[in-house]
Specification:
The protein has 224 residues and is an alpha/beta fold. 39% of the residues lie in helices and 20% in strands. The chain has one domain (13-222): Vaccinia Virus protein VP39 (Rossmann fold, 3-Layer(aba) Sandwich). The chain has a 7-stranded mixed beta sheet, with helices on both faces. Helix 7 links the parallel strand 4 (140-145) and strand 5. The longest helix has 15 residues, at 188-202. The protein is globular. Bound molecules: S-adenosylmethionine.
């Protein structure tokens, strides 16, 4: 292994709180959405991205001046609102893919409240089929993958060719809560993430960095 010059700090709960408090504040719509999701779906609320990740994704969309974005795994809409807010306000569009009508019904309500409903198109159904059915010319500046972990390699293979040069793919949960490095861990979801991480690293069409945001956020840039 190459010499390590400096490592990332481990975050204590106090440090994490400080980090969130010193990032752009979460607005009332996202706060209400997080609260309602916790109330309606207490066993699933952990699937939602955290506030600093949401802010980072909005900034990423703005920095890229992204017009066309796609999300694989929408749930109740937190990450889709963060992405949509960063898109070009005149002609930005986000294709949101999910299988759950129940969860995305909540998302639809909050897209209205956040004022981004006009720039989000929801497609219900297995996301791999949705992506495979897109017209050949459909291209993206920004993509976010956050659905079934065993499907990540398939989503990657569909999305990389559709990314514009310089486009960014963000991929969630790439540390699998630390389980990626546990040799005794052989759950399909963890193996799916390991396979994805190896696939992305070996892919010569992109440059990749894993960021210690949330449960690990991989950022891949399509080469020019
Ligand atoms: C981790 S959650 C997404 C969380 C969301 N990005 C957020 O920040 O609130 C994963 C989502 O993927 C969806 N999903 C699971 N398998 C899927 C599939 N094959 N195709 C499309 N969506 C799928 C689930 O219904 C769920 O809403």
């Amino acid at each position: 292994m190459a010499a390590v010059t400096r490592t990332t700090e481990s975050l204590t709960p106090e440090l994490y709180e400080y980090l969130v408090a010193h990032s752009a504040p979460v607005d009332p719509v996202l706060r209400d959405l997080a609260d309602e999701t916790a109330r309606l779906f207490p066993d699933s609320v952990g699937m939602q991205i955290g506030p600093e990740q949401g802010t980072f994704m909005t900034m990423m969309a703005r920095t890229l001046r992204a017009r066309d974005a796609v999300e694989v795994g929408t749930f109740t809409g937190y990450s889709s609102i963060c992405l949509a807010r960063g898109l070009d306000s005149r002609n930005g569009s986000l294709l949101a893919c999910d299988v759950s009508e129940e969860w995305t019904d909540v998302a639809r309500r909050y897209w209205d409240l956040a004022g981004v409903a006009d720039r989000i198109e929801l497609r219900l159904g297995p996301a791999l089929e949705t992506l495979q059915a897109l017209p050949a010319a459909r291209a993206f500046d920004l993509a976010f993958i956050d659905a079934d972990k065993t499907g990540y390699v398939g989503y990657w293979e569909e999305l990389v060719p559709r990314m514009r040069p310089g486009g960014i793919i963000l991929v969630d949960n790439t540390l699998s809560h630390g389980r990626v490095v546990d040799p005794a861990e052989d759950a399909p979801a963890v193996q799916g993430i390991r396979d994805f991480n190896d696939t992305a690293l070996a892919d010569e069409r992109t440059d990749v960095v894993m960021l210690p945001i949330g449960d690990g956020l991989t950022m891949a840039r399509k080469k020019d």
